[in-house]
Amino acid sequence: MSKQFDVIVIGAGPGGYIAAIRAAQLGMSVACIDAWQNAQGGPAPGGTCTNVGCIPSKALLQSSEHFEQLNHHFAEHGIEAQGATVNVEKMIGRKNGVVKQNNDGILYLFKKNKISFFHGKGEFAGKAEGGYAVKVTGPTSEDLVGKHIVVATGSAPRALPGLPFDEKVVLSNDGALAIGATPKKLGVIGAGVIGLEMGSVWRRLGAEVTVLEALPEFLMAADQQVAKEALKVFTKQGLNIQTGVKITETKATAKGVSLTYTDAKGAEQKLAVDKLIVSIGRVPYTDGLKADTVGLNLDERGFIAVDDECKTNLPNVWAIGDVVRGPMLAHKAEEEGVAVAERIAGQHGHVNFATVPWVIYTSPEIAWVGKTEQQLKAEGREYKAGSFPFLANGRARALGDTTGFAKVIADAKTDEVLGVHIIGPMASELISEAVTIMEFRGAAEDIARICHAHPTLSEAVKEAALAVDKRTLNF
């Protein structure tokens, strides 16, 4: 006999496991199905984010940053060291340990919240009395019935046409996080978040890194002032970043990849690398879901079609995270997971896409929320902007990390904050103040009037808000 649940969540990534926990908190019986497994074949919930995305990449970024600081910056502090080397195998082992801690933490949360976890792939098996039949296949085999189904199956890396991932020479984010030794020459296709972060890791560890980007400008999603600063800094660090590139030929062997491409000027170029990271976006993952069994609609790009509340075309079937429209960000998926659980319970879940922050965990970090200057110009909206360099921030000077600036953009008439853009130390943490202000539709004056502790990096945000009114105090 099938096991019955109020809610079945298919996928235990950031959206799925959070949806399951919130639904359980609201008094529902919940099952969560996930197929990820560790090297031993055991369950590894957390999805791409925990296993081959956000968490392991940050672990490697931290390790490589320590190595970079030791070799190039500690001497400024009077700390002298010679002959430092990096044990890549041990570094990868630490990363794997961090991942496992997060996997185990999610399993603990399932147990704590009395959520039934099933290790395997979840697929629709048809409609059933009381809801929908879902079959679990894999390490666990079960037949379940859920009144509500939440699809949170995430996304998969997009391969370059004619160049499939082998995760040895041609790498997705998965393979890029498991390179056994620093390659002499590393190619990266795509100057987005994954490409820049992974390129930064292996550049710090000694690889000669070339980044090829098809778009005509660098970081076109970011504010142009931030993008220009980032390109200057990353180039100085040693990343060879080329934009406006069109790849015309690829050839992979066991020893490396050779590329032929035209550059921004139309000239033909050739590049040979030991390993190639392909980070040209991600595609929604619905393989094996058997959506057609129940008539679940997908849109023209393969995403599960949903409305503003994450409802699909089927009653009581919901979808969240990377498998639906909107930014492919872990925190966006989490917010949708909470919102859907609350909507199922009859509450009014809320997700505001306008205040979803973006972060690139390079050094310096880049973070932003809201509108860029180029977006506001295109909309014809009148605005005023102010910026403040970390060079003039006392805490940044003490840290020895004064690259970049904070920038606040506000409405020219109402002073409402329309966007905040930061490139510099701990930008990922500083951006939360901006998100909060924007959620309350606060003004630049509100940031400027709030007392910020001294000396802190957050004072740069306050000074940028003061700069909107041309009254900075420390620059």
From TrEMBL:
<feature type="binding site">
    <location>
        <position position="281"/>
    </location>
    <ligand>
        <name>NAD(+)</name>
    </ligand>
</feature>
<dbReference type="InterPro" id="IPR001100">
    <property type="entry name" value="Pyr_nuc-diS_OxRdtase"/>
</dbReference>
<feature type="disulfide bond" description="Redox-active">
    <location>
        <begin position="49"/>
        <end position="54"/>
    </location>
</feature>
<keyword id="KW-0520">NAD</keyword>
<dbReference type="Pfam" id="PF07992">
    <property type="entry name" value="Pyr_redox_2"/>
</dbReference>
<feature type="domain" description="FAD/NAD(P)-binding">
    <location>
        <begin position="5"/>
        <end position="337"/>
    </location>
</feature>
<dbReference type="InterPro" id="IPR023753">
    <property type="entry name" value="FAD/NAD-binding_dom"/>
</dbReference>
<keyword id="KW-0560">Oxidoreductase</keyword>
<keyword id="KW-0676">Redox-active center</keyword>
<feature type="binding site">
    <location>
        <position position="58"/>
    </location>
    <ligand>
        <name>FAD</name>
    </ligand>
</feature>
<feature type="binding site">
    <location>
        <position position="213"/>
    </location>
    <ligand>
        <name>NAD(+)</name>
    </ligand>
</feature>
<feature type="binding site">
    <location>
        <position position="122"/>
    </location>
    <ligand>
        <name>FAD</name>
    </ligand>
</feature>
<dbReference type="GO" id="GO:0004148">
    <property type="term" value="F:dihydrolipoyl dehydrogenase (NADH) activity"/>
</dbReference>
<keyword id="KW-0547">Nucleotide-binding</keyword>
<dbReference type="InterPro" id="IPR050151">
    <property type="entry name" value="Class-I_Pyr_Nuc-Dis_Oxidored"/>
</dbReference>
<keyword id="KW-0285">Flavoprotein</keyword>
<dbReference type="Pfam" id="PF02852">
    <property type="entry name" value="Pyr_redox_dim"/>
</dbReference>
<feature type="active site" description="Proton acceptor">
    <location>
        <position position="454"/>
    </location>
</feature>
<feature type="binding site">
    <location>
        <position position="322"/>
    </location>
    <ligand>
        <name>FAD</name>
    </ligand>
</feature>
<feature type="binding site">
    <location>
        <begin position="328"/>
        <end position="331"/>
    </location>
    <ligand>
        <name>FAD</name>
    </ligand>
</feature>
<dbReference type="InterPro" id="IPR006258">
    <property type="entry name" value="Lipoamide_DH"/>
</dbReference>
<feature type="domain" description="Pyridine nucleotide-disulphide oxidoreductase dimerisation">
    <location>
        <begin position="356"/>
        <end position="465"/>
    </location>
</feature>
<keyword id="KW-0274">FAD</keyword>
<dbReference type="InterPro" id="IPR016156">
    <property type="entry name" value="FAD/NAD-linked_Rdtase_dimer_sf"/>
</dbReference>
<dbReference type="GO" id="GO:0005737">
    <property type="term" value="C:cytoplasm"/>
</dbReference>
<comment type="similarity">
    <text>Belongs to the class-I pyridine nucleotide-disulfide oxidoreductase family.</text>
</comment>
<dbReference type="InterPro" id="IPR004099">
    <property type="entry name" value="Pyr_nucl-diS_OxRdtase_dimer"/>
</dbReference>
<feature type="binding site">
    <location>
        <begin position="153"/>
        <end position="155"/>
    </location>
    <ligand>
        <name>FAD</name>
    </ligand>
</feature>
<feature type="binding site">
    <location>
        <begin position="190"/>
        <end position="197"/>
    </location>
    <ligand>
        <name>NAD(+)</name>
    </ligand>
</feature>
<keyword id="KW-0963">Cytoplasm</keyword>
<dbReference type="GO" id="GO:0050660">
    <property type="term" value="F:flavin adenine dinucleotide binding"/>
</dbReference>
<dbReference type="InterPro" id="IPR036188">
    <property type="entry name" value="FAD/NAD-bd_sf"/>
</dbReference>
<dbReference type="GO" id="GO:0006103">
    <property type="term" value="P:2-oxoglutarate metabolic process"/>
</dbReference>
<protein>
    <recommendedName>
        <fullName>Dihydrolipoyl dehydrogenase</fullName>
        <ecNumber>1.8.1.4</ecNumber>
    </recommendedName>
</protein>
